[in-house]
Fold this protein.
Amino acid sequence: MRKASNRRSGGGTAAPALREPSLAAVPFLKFAGTGPIELLSDAQRQQVRRRAVARDFPARTIVYRAGSSADSVFVIGEGVVKSYRDLASGRRRIAAFFFARDLFGLAESGYYVNTVQAITPVRAYEIHVDALTELFAHDPDIEAQFLWKTVHVLREAQHHNIIIGRRDAVGRVAMLLRLLRKQDSAGSNRNIPVPMSKSDIADYLGLSLEAVVRATRRLERQGIVQFVGRHQVQILDLRQFEALAVAA
Amino acid sequence: MRKASNRRSGGGTAAPALREPSLAAVPFLKFAGTGPIELLSDAQRQQVRRRAVARDFPARTIVYRAGSSADSVFVIGEGVVKSYRDLASGRRRIAAFFFARDLFGLAESGYYVNTVQAITPVRAYEIHVDALTELFAHDPDIEAQFLWKTVHVLREAQHHNIIIGRRDAVGRVAMLLRLLRKQDSAGSNRNIPVPMSKSDIADYLGLSLEAVVRATRRLERQGIVQFVGRHQVQILDLRQFEALAVAA
DNA sequence: CGTCGTATTGAGGAGGCTCAACTAAGGTGG
DNA sequence: CCACCTTAGTTGAGCCTCCTCAATACGACG
């Protein structure tokens, strides 16, 4: 299914073929397969790496704030961030969670539109816009890959729209869990990592914290899922889970 | 503020500098101004035009259906379309309305993810994906413009997220009207064209038709706006209107 | 001047929100 | 090691808004 380049799960011993910064997306055009694939070739990753600055953000660190000058875009090597905006009403709306191999740094007229904050410790590659321009000029094909990645993010934003369009809290929570499941391990796993807090989940789903809690509790009482600590969910009844999460 | 090239509202007499297919977006980078600008140069429009097929879609025509093979992207010359998906629940979610100078044709793995239908009579430029590839190879700068346009659409999707995140129907309707107002005439106008039906508005806002009706009626009863026929709204109290639409 | 799709209005019920009190977990300093 | 403190999570009661169902009005078009 996937072009499984030379994957090796061990630690980095003798210069493993550079795997970061890596970009993943479901392609725009037809291809053999259905899931996300790696967009950048080894050579392209090197090109990007050369012009990027590797940075580490401890959990909770603000990467940038909405309204500040947008000088860079970022590619995540490892970790999870949230991209959000605080509204006049005092509410916070999380526009997206970003994971390894994601691209973020959405700007408008040179200023970031959202605030981005690390949820877990994050390693990211910061690419200055000048470097980005240079990169695109040097290799137009890299530009194409960034375009496809942006299209991918756009699709995800539309999916988010569909999620929060549901009126029932249980269904929305189920759909988010399904997202997190696909994020991890190609989605055949019954244990889902949930790095973010329930409060973050509420802000993402457009619910109150209480509604999220009640929804998860109901899922547990019905024997569909079970929380293992605060940051992992176990799926007990996959059939019912999918039924809820897909029904839309 | 805008590069007001040679605008002339009359009919096309002696070869006016080709204005279509035209792409508009708020830029990614800093620039002098704040609204959307034209992305393509005259030469680039010619390049695009050469590889595109001009097509006319009467109102209500389906441009393409979700799930069908995504062979082309489209740039709108004139008219309005809706891009939507029908859910298993029987509900319809409109992901976006697209207007003149917009780009649509979002695909995943070579298949359209949404259905697109003309709301008004539409003139569009259909660009086959092969032609698009060729176009990008020929002029990487055009590719960049398509990237910026996609980023623009992504921002709009996020804004849509914020709209439907509101719980009050009146506020959501106000935000949509504000969008339509900005779409038309740089937004200094008190008369807003509303090409779509209230049912479409409901599907866009994630409300029932009845809720949309009641919300508009309340706006009218409070003397904030007034419907003139079915497809135009007049703003009576701009201050209150903005307060509602911005508050989020 | 009928007919179909769109729009409007009312009544009743469900679900999420707010407010409020309380519990659990994680981190820090003595 | 434990007391303390802070943040995250849980649960209940009552309110409010939107949804559903149902009946009716309007308007464009043939």
